[in-house]
# Entry
Amino acid sequence: MTSVPPISPYFDSAALASFRELCAGQPFFEALGGNVLQYVVVIDANFAIGDLLHKHRNPDRPRTAAEEVIASSVLRLHAPRWLDVEMTGSAIPQVARDRGIPENELQELWAKYRVQLIWDESLNTPEAFKESSNPKDMPYVALQCTVAAAGILTNDKGMERLGGKPLRLDFVLAIREYARATAFCVGVRFGGTMIGWISVAALVEGVRALSSLVTRLPPWGKALCLVGVLVVVLHPKLRARVLDLLGDAWSAAELAAPELQRLIVAMQEKQQEAEVARHKSVLLVGGGKT
# Structure
């Protein structure tokens, strides 16, 4: 069999969020898209500051990996209000001084970044955890328990000792890979189904319209229609023209066939990529809740 060159049309992973919303309460669409993964996770200050520094170094990139998976709805990222206090009051000023970055630039980046988070207003101070060995990190651990999160995005090695489940950048990269591959598969499935629906619906409506038109015609009009059909059937040139038109349609379908085959091959590859990435993310979480 002739090998088919790969094809890789781009589907923005953020489309998954729109698809998830469309599927809500619609069993057919849910079956079409499959069960799209979604993780509930908490973020702490040192991971957030790392994302801000990445954005500052790469102003041409619209989203970090974490922001991309938030936009895709594969990640629901929670934060205690204490994170905002810690970022604006200590983390950003300290990093700005240490790295020679204007503080207002990081504060502006943070103002845009934080609107993507889901905030818990009750955990706005570590005072309730002053008996802990590290009270400043306890609001994140407490929120992990409150929202039954899979873990905490952090670079803090001590988070686990406090009872938190640390998740690193490799987890974010795994679910980003999953989101991108899944967006491709869902886009192809959904797009193909809608095209099929539109084509079938157009055909059905066309037949209905034609049938309705013919039934409303007076007897002499119906007779003319019959004569017209007979003329096409019996007249060699007209019959040949109709067959040519049908042949053109068939040729177009033949030309499209290789592209369709490439798309099917690409979707199979993306399905495998999505499954590998999903499996990796589950291992990194340790089989915990998504």
In short: Residues 1-7, 193-204, 229-234 have pLDDT under 50 and may be disordered. The longest helix spans residues 236-285. The two ends are 42 Å apart (CA to CA). The CA atoms of residues 111 and 161 lie 31 Å apart.
